[in-house]
Amino acid sequence: MKIGILETGKPPTELTEDYGDYVDAFKGLLANQGFEFEGWSVVDGVFPASVSDANGWLITGSRHGAYEDHDWIPPLEDFIREAVTLSVPMVGICFGHQIIAQALGGKVEKYAGGWVVGHQVYDFFGTPLAMHAWHQDQVVELPPGATTLASGENCAHAAIIYGDRALTVQAHPEYDAGFIEGLIEHRGKGVVPDAQLQTALDGLGQGTSNQLMADQIADFFRQERAK
User: Fold this and answer.
1) Does residue 227 lie in a domain region?
2) Is 174 considered catalytic here?
3) Residues paired with 138 in a beta bridge
4) With contact defined as beta carbons under 8 Å apart, do 149 and 136 qualify?
5) Is 12 helix (H, G, I), strand (E, B) or coil?
6) Whole domain around residue 188: which residue ranges?
7) Band of the pLDDT at 150, cuts 50, 70, 90?
8) Catalytic annotation present for 36
9) Residues 202, 164: contact at Cβ < 8 Å?
């Protein structure tokens, strides 16, 4: 099964030598799941020729807002809607979570509580799952037909399911503690309040449910679905 990765942002250049880009991060997260991968840098205007160029699509995180005026956002939303229509499964992470919701009729805006960074625990129907988060924007209104799968103290719609068409997660199962530490150093200082950055640093030693989330993503891609 071929998974197309739509890269909607770039990590800080200081981190790419050790961690690669966001396409590399998801290849690592979903390694040993039997998938093949191809990436497209949609943030640079590079799109697949067709939603049929892969068997499933994964939309990455980004420092951009889904509601911002960028030339590549409208065609990405069109791509999302076509994939839903043709029953090509999608997974969205952080920005991907937000842009899928927006494209399908939901609403994304800056969280009134500010930034959410570092180790977070989410309630997946009574099961606590821990992941690292790094966001200020959130989905605040669900699209028609969508269902909230998980919520957290600072994120009401932390994971969303769209029938068998899309699965999206606000947090970052592809981020390990070292990557978050790098974001704090190279993207957080002077942007995220110092107290929050220190709390995030202090929590880096706590475990995550990244592998469990990776397995759920892989199972979602592989499930049989109606056309």
Assistant:
1) no
2) yes
3) 109
4) no
5) coil
6) 2-222
7) very high
8) no
9) no
